[in-house]
Design brief:
single chain, about 100 residues, mainly alpha
Length: about 100
């Protein structure tokens, strides 16, 4: 499992280097705030650009919308919680801001 995690992280690092600094900053913010309710306004303010431009550059870099990326990351974290059997589905939903 550790080898798979390291490989996945290496691929992630390689792919993220191809993104703009705005997209990288947005991804870092999202990944560090998965337990919060993340709004587009909060994200754009953190990256210090308009939300329209952030959406456009993020989609251009990642080929997916910001909302899709956030939901995908939350689902992956929820899967991890379920596999580890640490929380109930209700607790996971509450913890991840659903």
């Amino acid at each position: 499992m550790q080898v798979l995690y390291k490989f996945t992280y290496m691929v992630y690092q390689k792919n993220i280097k191809q993104y703009s600094n705005y997209t990288i900053s947005a991804i870092k913010y999202i990944n560090s705030h998965l337990h919060d309710h993340i709004t587009l306004n909060d994200l754009a303010n953190n990256v210090n650009i308009s939300k329209e431009y952030l959406c456009r550059i993020f989609k251009s870099d990642t080929k997916e919308s910001i909302n899709h990326y956030i939901n995908q990351q939350k689902v992956e974290l929820a899967k991890t919680y379920l596999i580890q059997n640490k929380l109930s589905i209700k607790e996971i939903a509450y913890t991840l801001g659903y």
